[in-house]
Write a structure and sequence with these properties.
mainly alpha, two-stranded antiparallel sheet, 4 helices, 2 strands
């Protein structure tokens, strides 16, 4: 493989694939009802007196929409249909990738749960 800015193209492809699997897992977790802010490393804004704490699921819709839009754009490289006609296929491909990622031993913690995308990118 060719060298691009000191990084082998194969390494970039592997990182892109890992990122895609992490996004698929995140979308599946949101659809399963897990809150987007369950990560203890995610900063939470302070709550002042008289204010209510933000709902941990308040950003889930935006996150899921961004992931689905990215998946639909990626699918557009292989599918000539307009984006409005392929969104369902993009969702099915995303869920299929999430199921695949759940079966990959390198993406699982020793206790069987999923690793976070943040821990994957730190390695």
């Amino acid at each position: 493989m060719t060298n691009h800015n000191g990084v082998l193209m194969m390494q970039r492809l592997l990182l892109a694939g890992t990122l895609g699997l992490a996004m698929a897992q995140k979308a599946a977790a949101i659809l399963d009802g897990e809150p987007a802010s369950a990560d203890p490393l995610m900063p939470v804004p302070p709550v002042l007196d008289g204010q209510r704490a933000p709902d941990p699921r308040s950003n889930d819709g935006a996150v899921l929409r961004a992931i689905l839009d990215a998946a639909n754009d990626c699918l557009g490289h292989f599918d000539d249909r307009p984006p409005g006609e392929r969104w369902c296929d993009a969702l099915l491909h995303l869920l299929d990738l999430a199921a695949f990622a759940a079966d990959v031993p390198e993406l699982r913690k020793s206790d069987g749960s999923r690793k976070s995308a943040r821990s994957e990118l730190k390695q």
